[in-house]
Amino acid sequence: MRFLMFLCVLLFGVAFAQDVQIRVLVAQQSKVQLVIPFSHHVMAFDGTVLYQSSTPVQWDLEVKGSRIWINGQDSGRDVLHFQETTANQSLLLNGVRYRGAMSLYGQGSALTVVNTLNIEDYLRSVVPAEMPPSWPVEALKAQAIIARTYAIERLNPKGLYDVCATQQCQVYKGQSSENPLVDVAISQTYKQIIAYNQRPAKTFFSSDNGGFTASSAEVWGSNLPYLVAQPDPFSVGPKSKWSLNISFSQLTSVARNYGFKGTAKGFRVDKYSGSGRVTQVSVLSDSGAFALSGAEAGGIIRALGGFSTRVAVETNDSGVVIYGSGYGHGVGLSQYGAKGMAERGYSSDEILGFYYPGVSRGGYTLAAEVPETKPRQPLMRLNPLSSN
Predict the structure, then answer these.
(1) N or C: which end of the chain has fewer CB within 10 A?
(2) Domain layout of the chain by residue ranges
(3) Which residues, if any, are the signal sequence (predicted)?
(4) What is the full per-residue pLDDT of the chain (388 aa) written as tens digits?
């Protein structure tokens, strides 16, 4: 198995010799089933061939004391590699088809299963899992670029994997989510990323920012100049406006997880961030106000069922009403905002320039490659109130 050790990010138009391989954590469980419907071999960590087969094989794999057992027999190893597939082949892990290779690591009572594949093939699964393929192609191209950037920025040669397959990273479903409409957007943005100061940008994104992007500083305390708070007239989705009715008993139960000891009689927002997201709230009782700040302020809103922390709160005789805007943290690209911009005729460059002001779009290259020196211009910074 080949590991990428160094990556140089450059904002140049260049020719590339090879694609990056991305390692995705796809499972952590005690038992898995791997079906390989083609001639293949299984290797140890040092490259030794342990098993080979000229016919399709179902491998039932489990871990016992960190050792991997295959079809009921101890392999004597705690790491196994199943060879990479070719372009028209796939293997099945627990019934899901995947491109590329699979590596298994015995770790205590769990098998850590990592799928290694070409990053462009990885995007073929991620982009349609994150954005509906029926959306405008310019929105899909923007999503493809930030998904590629997200993965490149998180390459971690020292770890067992680079990214996970869930919403904690980017949703990856193997071949099951691939779609030819999305393949077009990926091919049209081949190897393109966005960067700031010649480093891959941190391309956070969410479903709908509720009409105002959040800065990275207010959400995570990290001030990145291209992740700013600003009005967004384009982000309009099903959760742009929502409300929740919360009983006092429900509020009491949730607040006790944060150290509240009384019986809730009310709820209020004490402080907002620059984008209108809560930074301090108080649970009210007969004994006074119990304040929560920072991450806990947003945490209790989400624990109460809120889709975002851009909310207003009203207390009445029967409980609390939370009026909210948006879905997700609101930092970086709004997916519904990208859709809205594309529907108005904006290009993927303009979409990215709006949501990540000051970044540049260009290509990545392996450190051993020598690029041409043709710098790209920064993406267009849009007036949030302009439209086509």
Answers:
(1) C
(2) 31-108, 242-324
(3) 1-17
(4) 222 222 233 433 333 346 799 999 999 999 999 998 888 878 877 778 888 888 888 889 999 988 999 889 898 889 988 887 777 788 999 999 999 999 999 988 899 999 999 999 999 999 999 999 999 999 999 999 999 999 999 999 899 999 999 999 999 999 999 999 999 999 999 999 999 998 999 999 999 999 999 999 999 888 999 999 999 999 999 999 999 999 999 999 999 999 999 999 999 999 999 999 999 999 999 999 999 999 999 999 999 999 999 999 999 999 999 999 999 999 999 999 999 999 999 999 999 999 999 999 998 876 654 444 344 555 654 543 333 3
